[in-house]
Amino acid sequence: MSQTIFTRFQLDYGAFQLDADLNLPGSGISVLFGPSGSGKTTLLRCIAGLEQPPQGFLSVNGKIWQDSERAIFLPPYQRQVGYVFQDANLFPHLTVFDNLNFGLKRVGRSFNGGDVRKTLKLLAIDRLLDRMPDRLSGGERQRVAIARALVLKPELLLMDEPMASLDFKLKQEILPFLIRLRQQLDIPVLYVTHSQEEVAQLADHLVAIDAGRVLASGPLADTLGRIDLPIAEDKHALMVWQGRVVEHDADYHLTLIGFSGAELHLPIVAAAIGDTVRVQIYASDVSISLEAPRATSILNVLPATITDIADRLNGQAIVKLEVSALPLLAHITCKSRQLLDLQVGRHVYVQIKGTSIVN
Ligand SMILES: Nc1ncnc2c1ncn2[C@@H]1O[C@H](COP(=O)(O)OP(=O)(O)OP(=O)(O)O)[C@@H](O)[C@H]1O
């Protein structure tokens, strides 16, 4: 059975109150997503023991780290937590090796352990060990910061916008490593971001937070499909489907991806037949018609059923659909919704104008 993290924190800063009750899976990446000032960092700091709210409970994989009712509070150094920040914060006067070894020595562990080697390999920093931090790229520095946290074998890894200070190119460079962490790490990760793109690429579980409160917490597609939340209204609102590569069509530079009950053609994907891939579909790329379009340039046309609709004051309607059992969001105008008389339960066709692979 998957181990679980239970948190309950209440904290009052005067102008801001955190009141967060969360149950997170004991594996995979849980992403905390919310606007600036919504309390994401404060929640991570509570989990790390850097804040001590008067009301707090935290248990990680069956161990109680904090329980205000029983006056239990493990100080930060007794919590097996790795913390990666926006900036790598490496010791500038120490080599990469010494930066990593610094923490290991403090806990009486050797650099030569199998776990350390595995981490260096996972983050491809084995060839950077002699470098000083100022001779590393921003992405390499961040990979060293992640390795420094992981070699201490934490029970939980906290990552607070680890890519926020990287430019687009460096983000693209580090993302594959984060995806690899998602696939290979056997500890739970709590990852803070503002970016829908990072949500699509990394989240297994998604928590939407606003004004210090948890609005939703659940498997990625469940939270993305909550049309009552700001995340579904955002102009970058999207859905993520996981599928497998069925075939490549070299003549047309297309790849066919199969999902449970649906197939999509994508611009050719660098993955082998049978590989698992995530595909993101923006709500703004989905249009709806009542009949199967007979002459259309759009390759991906699928039958769907409307399961929910929310009209917004800005003239936009968010439509939630099911394609087979796969959830999908569409942003259309309220005028189109009225003209087509779209109602919950109606069978329609969706045309998906653009799709892209996220890993
Ligand atoms: N020590 C403190 N004392 C008083 N208020 C604080 C303190 N730390 C944070 N706050 C306030 O708490 C609120 C939540 O801050 P927090 O940094 O947790 O938000 P966030 O969601 O991580 O934001 P961002 O995405 O911009 O990093 C903010 O209004 C912030 O000003």
UniProtKB/TrEMBL annotation:
Stated name of the protein: Molybdenum ABC transporter, ATP-binding protein
Pfam family, one: TOBE
InterPro entries according to UniProt: AAA+_ATPase (IPR003593), ABC_transporter-like_ATP-bd (IPR003439), ABC_transporter-like_CS (IPR017871), Mo/tungstate-bd_C_term_dom (IPR008995), ModC_ABC_ATP-bd (IPR011868), Molybdenum_import_ModC (IPR050334), Mop_domain (IPR004606), P-loop_NTPase (IPR027417)
Gene3D superfamilies listed in its UniProt record: 2.40.50.100, P-loop containing nucleotide triphosphate hydrolases (3.40.50.300)
Keyword Zinc-finger set for record: no
Matching NCBIfam families: modC_ABC (TIGR02142)
Gene Ontology terms for molecular function: ABC-type transporter activity; ATP binding; ATP hydrolysis activity; molybdate ion transmembrane transporter activity
SMART domains in the cross-refs: AAA
Domain Mop intervals: 295-359
Organism, scientific name: Methylomicrobium album BG8
Keyword Protease tagged: no
Domain (ABC transporter): residue spans on this chain: 1-236
Keywords tagged on the record: ATP-binding, Cell inner membrane, Cell membrane, Membrane, Molybdenum, Nucleotide-binding, Translocase, Transport
GO terms for cellular component: membrane
